[in-house]
Amino acid sequence: MISLPLSDIARVLSGTLHLAAGDTPETPVSGTVDTDSRNIGPGDVFVAKPGEATDGHLFVPAAAETGAALAIVERRVDAGITQIVVADAVTALADLAREVVGRVRESGDLRVVGITGSNGKTTTKNLLARILEGEGLTVAPRASFNNSVGAPLTMLRVAQDTRYLVSEFGADGSGQIARLAGLVTPDVGVVLMVGMAHAGGFGGVEATLKAKTELVEAVREGGVAVLNADDARVVTMAAVAEARGVRVRWFGRGPTAEVRAEDVEVDASGTSCVIVVGEQRLPLRLRVLGEHHVMNALAAITAALELGVALDAAIERLETVEIAERWRMQPLGSESVRIINDAYNASPDSMAAALRTLAQITQPGERKVAVLGAMSELGEFAGDEHDRVGLQAVRLRIERIVVVGAEARRLYLAAIGEGSWDGEAVFFADADAAYDYLVDELRPGDRVLVKSSNSAGLRHLGDRLGEFFS
């Protein structure tokens, strides 16, 4: 965080300042801001956020012992540290982020990019960050820091000489993206797609569309909306952008896209295509596994071009990316038994894309194995969407469909009903049972996809299989 005196922080947070011995209202604070006391070091700021499992106020003394300069609290704690008492710690975190980004923007050369979409946010964020790091100091979220806590924590990492801030905005209800994007009013807003992810929380795909449009509405006047020309719902956002004085740039694989990909080819080591921008045609070899990541790369390239990055430089940097993120189409195992661990998150769209990738990269003589768990946050749509995944797995001729967990049982039943009844589909109640089966069942030449939502926990099963077959 940039250096701010304690009095300024208290004013911004509308909080009450309680000084520890040796501090004054003008004492500057410039350390890292975090809600996890385990990450706090000398000079840092600890935000004592009440949580479902525990209360951050219990860890204020620990933060003080490790050298924290300030604790932002909702009630004063008996600890030898300066504290600012606020009405709501999460709101205070957002207010502080807004202030810090605003000050850096006024006095520096900071440009802000916001990214949202039902799928692909984290991958696109990482791809764009890799491109921008070659241009100047870039701050981007760690992992999937895209909610009401993670997004402000990322924003608070900007320094006076930060040139680019890449923010990822997730949501499971209306108004959340508006609040988060409103903290930074992005110069560039990227919308990847509108699908069924979190549809249960939103109340359906049309409500999801409305929520994702909030990013376009938050882009500052004169800014740019980078939109997916291949997604009919995203296309409707152009009218919103233009009404606000925001330019639109299109990416996609269809002919209407200004930045598009042609001649896409997929194999077990990555994806090749040709990037077309006007008269320019340059080859791109992505080491990130999966054809669907071409769209994420196009979005990142389009945003980078709007920030003044040359196309050849953007492509050269993208080609250095080996994996999008841990547990996202992450290759593990060996050439003999290849494990693809994609079990950090799952939606109907990402399930379909991952299964298609498995089918594309499996060569004659090799066997396709899909280890599938539940997709979360689908609400009333969960049953039908799990049915569709089961049907697709059979129609793609996946030789072994291993379904794990009671919440995914409909997927298993759908696979059987579609025609997978001769042992191709099996069901296990938990990951341990599935692991025991798989270490005996898998054989040289198998290509294994492990895919589920985070809550299903199959990412750890993927890691175990990767280690066993390495």
List the helices and strands and how they pair.
Blueprint: E1 4-5, H1 6-12, E2 16-18, E3 28-29, E4 33-34, E5 45-47, H2 60-65, E6 70-73, E7 83-85, H3 89-107, E8 111-116, H4 121-133, E9 138-139, H5 150-155, E10 164-168, H6 176-182, E11 188-191, H7 199-202, H8 205-218, E12 224-228, H9 232-235, H10 237-243, E13 247-252, E14 259-267, E15 270-277, E16 280-286, H11 293-306, H12 311-318, E17 330-333, E18 338-342, H13 348-361, E19 367-372, H14 382-395, E20 400-404, H15 409-418, E21 425-428, H16 431-441, E22 446-451, H17 458-468
Question: Your description of this structure?
Answer:
The chain has 470 residues and is α/β, with parallel strands linked by helices. The protein has 17 helices and 22 strands. It has helices at residues 6-12, 60-65, 89-107, 121-133, 150-155, 176-182, 199-202, 205-218, 232-235, 237-243, 293-306, 311-318, 348-361, 382-395, 409-418, 431-441, 458-468; strands at residues 4-5, 16-18, 28-29, 33-34, 45-47, 70-73, 83-85, 111-116, 138-139, 164-168, 188-191, 224-228, 247-252, 259-267, 270-277, 280-286, 330-333, 338-342, 367-372, 400-404, 425-428, 446-451. The chain has a nine-stranded mixed beta sheet with strand order 9-10-8-11-12-13-14-15-16, with helices on both faces. Strands 17-18-22-19-20-21 form a six-stranded mixed beta sheet, sandwiched between helices. Strands 2-7-6-5-4 form a five-stranded mixed beta sheet. Helix 6 (176-182) packs parallel to helix 8 and helix 14 packs across helix 15 (409-418). The longest helix is centred in the N-terminal third of the chain and has 19 residues, at 89-107. The mean pLDDT is 94.
